[in-house]
Structures are given as C-alpha cells and as structure tokens.
Design goal:
- With 127 residues, the protein is mostly beta strands.
- Strands 2, 3, 5 and 6 form a 4-stranded antiparallel sheet that branches. A 3-stranded antiparallel sheet has the order 1-7-4.
- The protein is built from 1 helix and 7 strands; from the N terminus they run βββαββββ.
- The radius of gyration is 16 Å and the shape is globular.
- Helix content is 4%, strand content 33%.
- It has a single domain (12-103), classed as Elongation Factor Tu (Ef-tu), domain 3 (Beta Barrel).
- The protein has one helix at residues 35-39, and strands at residues 12-16, 24-26, 30-31, 45-54, 66-72, 81-87, 96-103.
Length: 127
C-alpha cells in the first residue's frame, strides 16, 4: 500500500465549530492542546467533509457550508496554531458544523501522548 491509498487503520479526526453567526464562523487559533491544532496539517490532512450537527435554517434554504480559509503557523513556530473559517450561503444560518479529516502521514513533531493517546501515524510504503 502506498501513501496514495487509504488505510483502514487511519484515524478520522473531528472538530466541532461553535454556532455560526450571520452565516460565518471561525475555529479561532486552535493550538496543539486541541484536536484541530494537534492533528490538522496543510499538505497531509485530507478533509472528508462538513456535517451539520444542529440545524437552524429552513431545509429549503441553500445553506451548504464551505471552507473560506485555512491558516496555520509556520512549521517551526511555537505555539503552532490552526484557524479554519466556514461560511454558508444563508446569512441567517446559525447551525453547528463538524469538520472531519484524515491524515495521510505521521504528524511530524507530535507524539501520541501529547494529544491524549490519539495518533494519526500511518505506515507509508513507496508506490
């Protein structure tokens, strides 16, 4: 199996955003003590989807969420933080959304002990 394939043992991580305000929400700068800050890496984290956990909008409204931006601090900058901003097309949306992602390589510089025993380490073989 190579890094382009999905391993069944790969953990799936989740982050629950606060309720939207006016159709937008930011995760804020999540540091390494949070699941998002410790386990989301540009270039290695693959977003699986956004799921509405609680709904506040008319289902007929097109309020599908989308990611506006993802910002992380530089690799050697401490404390390392991750900020993700979501929007919806309905500015009346105050729903709560959950972001799911999966990592395709080991979280460099993070130990499983640092995130409460959760590790995204995968065995990656050359193709």
């Amino acid at each position: 199996m190579c890094s382009l394939e999905n391993q069944s043992s790969s953990p799936i991580f989740a982050y629950t955003f606060p309720a939207m305000v006016g159709g937008t929400i930011s995760s804020g700068a999540q540091n390494a003590t949070s699941v998002l800050g410790a386990n989301f890496f540009l270039g290695t984290s693959r977003i699986l989807g956004l799921v509405r956990k609680t709904s506040s909008v008319d289902p007929a409204n097109n309020s599908n969420p989308y990611i506006v931006s993802i910002a992380t601090t530089a690799a050697n900058t401490f404390p390392r933080t991750v900020t993700i901003v979501l929007n919806t097309f309905a500015n009346t949306d105050t729903s709560v959304y959950v972001l799911y992602w999966q990592n395709e390589v080991l979280n460099v510089g993070q130990s499983s002990a640092a995130v409460g025993g959760v590790s995204s380490a995968l065995t990656v073989f050359p193709c």
